[in-house]
Amino acid sequence: MKKEYRVKKNKDFQEIFKKGKSFANRQFVVYSLKKPGQAHFRIGLSVSKRLGNAVKRNQIKRYIRQAFHELEDDLQQEYDYIIIARKPAATMDFFEIKGSLVHVLKLSKVLKVRKALSKSEQ
Fold it and tell me: Which domains can be identified in the chain, with CATH numbers?
């Protein structure tokens, strides 16, 4: 994922936590904050040490980044997102993680719902 697509600064994380809206399911918590005039979305990831060793945490982050890359065209572009992984995410494979992210993003109404997308997910 390109540098301009990432939220890295603590100040940005805190602003999204305070002003953004949060939605959750068993595996993920997603905070989203609309940033008018922003050309594309940005994501920040948080994967706790409780989820496993460094290899496992990095694998989860790679899966989340890849899922966002595949959903790029369906996401609203003027948003910043923070994704917090919960314990069940540690035992999931890529397709389960992507499905779970699609679910929580639909709850937050930032994912454009397309019938072709939902059929391919099942």
Answer: 3-109 (3.30.230.10)
